[in-house]
Amino acid sequence: MPEKIIESFNIKRLEVLDEKGDADASLMPPLSDDEIKKMYELLILSRTFDRYALNLQREGRLGTYASILGQEASQIGSAFAVENTDWIFPSFREMGVYLTAGFPPYKLFQYWSGDERGITPPDNLNIFPVCVPVGTQIPHATGAAMAAVYRGDKTAVLAYFGDGGTSKGDFHEGLNIAGVFRLPVIFICQNNQWAISVPRERQTASKTLAQKAMAYGFEGLQVDGNDIFAVYKATRDALKKARQGEGPTLIECFTYRMSDHTTADDATRYRSMEEVEQWKQKDPALRLKLFLEKKGLWTEAYQKKIEEESKTIIEDAVKKEEAIQPPQPKDMFTYTYEKLSQRQSRQIKDF
Amino acid sequence: MPTLNMVQALNLALREEMQRDQDVVLLGEDVGKDGGVFRITEGLHDLFGSRRVLDTPLSESGIAGVSIGMAVYGLKPVAEIQFMGFIYSAMEQLFCHAARIRSRSRGRFTCPIVIRTPYGAGIKAPELHEESAEALFCHMPGVKVVVPSTPYIAKGLLISSIRDPDPVIFLEPARLYRLIKEDVPEGEYTIPLGKARIVQEGNAVTVLAWGSMLQRVLQAAGAADCEIIDLMTLNPFDEETIFKSVKKTGRVVIVHEAPRTCGFGAELSASIAEDAMLYLKAPIIRVTGYDAVMPLAKLEDYYIPDVEKIKRAVNEVLKYY
Is the pTM of this model over 0.90? Predict the structure, then answer.
């Protein structure tokens, strides 16, 4: 019997907006000028949040923090496509996603300063608390999508993780089950090239991370993760597909972690400055600014205005956060179970 | 009133809860058409369909993780892990997430899942099919650990576990599945979590046990003046009932199948020493499995505490006045 090819695949890479700020009109998603400006403003806001968080950490006013610098287009572009009823399961480097979803910035500072109350989302948002163990939030997204289908809701679910997360067993289990049940879940992989000190090519021998979706029987594509329009378009298309019952999508956002892994890390120990410099040319904010300028939507005055506004929002958030009374020690017990156990009832008397 | 074994009682509990509450769904390996390898879910797929009884891929961490996602969305998933030895690959999901979601989100999200799994020795099964790892879960605040000891108790505890707003690890002693039959009423009754029951009142020795060891304790000490307590919930456990009994008897024997070191008996023993030491007349004695890997069938009877060992321990503490 002759051998024959029984399966083959192609992986698409999507780019809409280039480094010079020119967009491919045939691929440009339908966004009004106001929406594009809103995206840019969220990008500046997220970057401002990030800068302040790093400074506050250095001053000892925040704990260890994971910077999002360089990944803003991946985060805002994807979260901008989401409906309020959708669910989001982030990892720990998604402050741009939280801010785009409408999470109050003062609460994010509260969380990073070491107060669990900060990461409790407002009642109208279904964005899950930060997930620390890498990749373990992926099956939760699959489960929430399964529940949404069970209830007959038109809800879709997004899971965020990085290139390192794709090496974890829960990536496999979460995507595999999502594929088997054709669930309305979108897996957003921000491939920022580094898992602390381990480069992308040491995570997997696969040429792309997107192609891993093929093994689970659904579409995977790579997008330029520093191109906010490409990320938005891919997410929007995947959400539409999900809502129509056509199953999951894996989107690999090809981006770069411009900062250290966290404030406790020093990236100069393991990667070259040349590499970082090269990625500076691909900055997601710069190319969106150039795009707006070419469309006549950007002026120096506009830039100054939105930077001032962002600064005011973030400084107000810091003030608000620092005025919050610290949590009560009793809270440690209150939220372990719905009711205190016999033993907890005795232990809580220490406070 | 029907006379049922534990398999039938658990099946009845699942059926009644699924009829009562549309949010209850079952998932796991072979729980659908096959009805589960021990037949706990037999007939439920036919009755409720594949929408509510989900055969999943072979994926323990995925089953636990997906259950967590379903629960935070608002459903009440009851997942089966086929044998306790396979729960180890789901530990990260249970410890890092199920146990912590209420706390991490300060009550905004909760995780009302039930993870059912057969546990314990005595069924002549392959390696890792007879584990007694209950103590691991008792060390994790945020999860509850429940162990039934009879068909009647099993039904009541499972209903309570499904209705509980927190994650429950529900450990089903595999050796008891078809060993005992008793009257199990149809319709609703619950047995509260976090409460022990006094199976036999007595004044001379308090004997603490749970799950499959309870039957052996009854054989060994049923005729003696022993107060036999079935813990039923190990985490959080009912220290009030235990202390009250110990203060009355002054003698304690703790029986479990799991290895001795850091077994749940160690916690009970330490708790009694802290709170009731001055009432003790004798050293606390533990009758447990050995600090050795659970052996295969030919050696398992040497490993599991037997009636003789329990009798010897009771006689030993009775030597002290």
Answer: yes
